[in-house]
Design brief:
There is one protein chain. With about 130 residues, this protein is an alpha+beta fold. A hairpin with a 6-residue loop joins strand 2 and strand 3. The strands form two sheets. A three-stranded antiparallel sheet has the order 1-2-3. The protein has one domain.
């Protein structure tokens, strides 16, 4: 029943409750610094698309699957919008993020869509 799940484990290679080393992303300090620079350039690209009342931040976080980047936009109203970005890997080596502009546009579009949906929706009617 649990044979295909990451927590099922393979008795010969991975104990139950543990992730396979092939499933996790581990980066050296040098690769983390490069990935952090890539995230900052995406953050800067997002900042160029939005007015200054939006707060844009980026950070690295450790997840069970390994290192992941997080870009967050705090709009003037509503909840923050975030996007997780896995480090782009090629045969186990970190490669440069070549789609900064596309990532930035996708995150900005999500933020704008969220704001529009929050401001255009009518409040729930609780009484007449």
């Amino acid at each position: 029943m649990y044979g295909n799940t990451p927590f099922g484990g393979n008795p010969t290679t991975t104990p139950a409750g543990q992730r396979s080393p092939n499933d996790t992303i581990s980066l050296s300090d040098e690769e983390k610094d490069k990935f952090k620079q890539d995230l900052h350039s995406v953050e800067a690209a997002i900042g160029r698309h939005l007015p200054s009342i939006y707060t844009v931040t980026s950070s690295l976080m450790q997840t069970p699957a390994g290192v992941q980047g997080l870009i967050a936009i705090e709009p003037p109203i509503g909840q923050p919008i975030g996007a997780g970005i896995a480090p782009p890997m090629d045969d186990g080596e970190l490669v440069a993020v070549e789609k900064h502009k596309q990532i930035a546009q996708d995150v900005v579009a999500a933020a704008v869509t969220a704001i529009i949906s929050r401001t255009n929706s009518e409040p729930p009617k609780v009484a007449r």
